[in-house]
Amino acid sequence: MRNPEELRSHRWFGGDELRGFSHRARSRQLGYNPEEHLGKPVIAILNTWSDINPCHMHLRERAEQVKRGVWQAGGFPLEFPVATLSETFQKPTPMLYRNLLSLETEEILRSYPIDGAVLMGGCDKTTPALLMGATSAGLPAIFVPAGPMLRGHWRNEVLGSGTDMWKYWDDKRAGLIGDEELSELERGLARSPGTCMTMGTASTMMSVAEVLGLTLPGAASIPAVDSAHHRMAAASGARAVEMVWEDLTITKILDERAYADAITTVLALGGSTNAVIHLIAMAGRGRIPLSVDDFDTIARRVPVLANIRPGGDWLMEDFYYAGGLPGLLSRLTDLLHTDRVTVTGRTLGENLASARVHDDDVIRTRDDPVAAEGGVAVLRGNLAPSGAVIKHIAAEPRLLVHTGPAVVFDDYRDLKKRINDPALGITEDSVLVLRGSGPLGGPGMPEYGMLPLPDHLLAKGVRDMVRVSDARMSGTSYGACVLHVAPESHVGGPLAFVRDGDPITLDVPSRRLSLDVDDAELQRRREAWNPPAPRYERGYGALYSEHITQADEGCDFDFLARVGENPEPDAQ
């Protein structure tokens, strides 16, 4: 155990020199008495709440509960508002700003008199951003997940946010429902604070934080409005104080085994494809090598056990009642590294000792999985030399081996303008191709990857087609969507050279994605290609464009991912 003079904050507040005197005087200006904070762990609460982030609308209240826990454990809490990254409203995509929140997190933890941190997030990009920044800062840190919202309801149906939005929007376009039904759906899809209650990116990444060992056991699955969520927040604040005294830093928790277990968990959950990008970036901050191929290797031995939409039948509230993530992990212990330490100070195995599953349909047994293999596959071929991904568990099986003629769109505006043009001759066998939507081209790699189907096919009952892009898609989406094609078209990846009518072959069992055009013709097209003009001339967009890496590298900034020291500030 450490003593008070070893606390990082002591460098600001301790001693008899001018700077210590000045810092103590300014603390009195803030209204703090000496006994409230001197000699106590200072815990930063990084809160991604805002008035325009529905996933986090309850985190202002939860921060007060975290503070209660910090006070009770003998610490001193300080709340910091940080970038909110609202998946719903921030354009062109909050992925453009994930690294900005990561950088903000790292520098706040580094530059203030902070001994440990409670990280509050959950909406898609906030979880990886906070964990990336905290990893780089290297202090004791614990994550408080925002939690999923309650189930949606419409008439006599249970709704899943995102997943059923796409479904019923297609029904509207096909003429199966009208404006009255759509108005009712607007009121029923999202009916409480919290993240999407399907196994989208938010639930996937909150589960990742838990299996990495950065949350209290069971925290990721608790519905946002459940009283257990209040108690978890307070307990997390208390545990943050204890972690400081124990010097249990985030870097002592996150190792190669933790990330291997995170991949195993994502696959067993049938989780979001976005986890591939985020986990590669997160691991890179800890100097832990991770690649898209690691996902495919592990996928071949991990069954999908979580029967949750969009790849299954249930929702996150059901998952929580069925035993939550601890319940699912209890059925995978032979595939996990259960001897590694977590924020509790105990091992993962010890945390799972009392875990139980209460519903074998929501969390399947190994003998009765949702799918025998993990729900994400990594594809390679001349169209994706550095890889692409597909959530094949959420696609129609008939399309997992398919060859069809390409119909090419240069960007999302082009797609929206022409998707219903009869002159394109789109059939259900066509392969829709979207380029100009990657890390640079998007910009920020927006969630355009679930390309809309033409109205005339929807009216015929077609609900899935092969779609290929350098974009991402929402974890709540579904369909035979090939995503994250790398290198992206904007930097001269092969997607830039596809033309209408070119045959494209998708073969998921063989992990192959190929443009069936001979090499000589592809080389002629490559030589005739001209790179697009830079999108940004100044501001954050210019910084982003100059330093963003490709999807297979995690889309981190190169200067944040590289090896090197970022020295501690001189507090005197």
From TrEMBL:
Key word Metal-binding present: yes
Domain Dihydroxy-acid/6-phosphogluconate dehydratase N-terminal: 40-351
Domain called Dihydroxy-acid/6-phosphogluconate dehydratase C-terminal: residue spans: 361-555
GO biological process terms on file: branched-chain amino acid biosynthetic process
GO MF terms, alphabetically ordered: 2 iron, 2 sulfur cluster binding; L-arabinonate dehydratase activity; metal ion binding
Pfam families xrefs: ILV_EDD_C (PF24877), ILVD_EDD_N (PF00920)
Keyword Transport assigned: no
EC identifiers of the protein: 4.2.1.25
Family annotation (Gene3D superfamilies): IlvD/EDD C-terminal domain-like (3.50.30.80)
UniProt entry keywords in alphabetical sequence: 2Fe-2S, Amino-acid biosynthesis, Branched-chain amino acid biosynthesis, Iron, Iron-sulfur, Lyase, Metal-binding
Family of this protein: Belongs to the IlvD/Edd family.
Protein name (database record): L-arabonate dehydratase
Gene that encodes it: araC
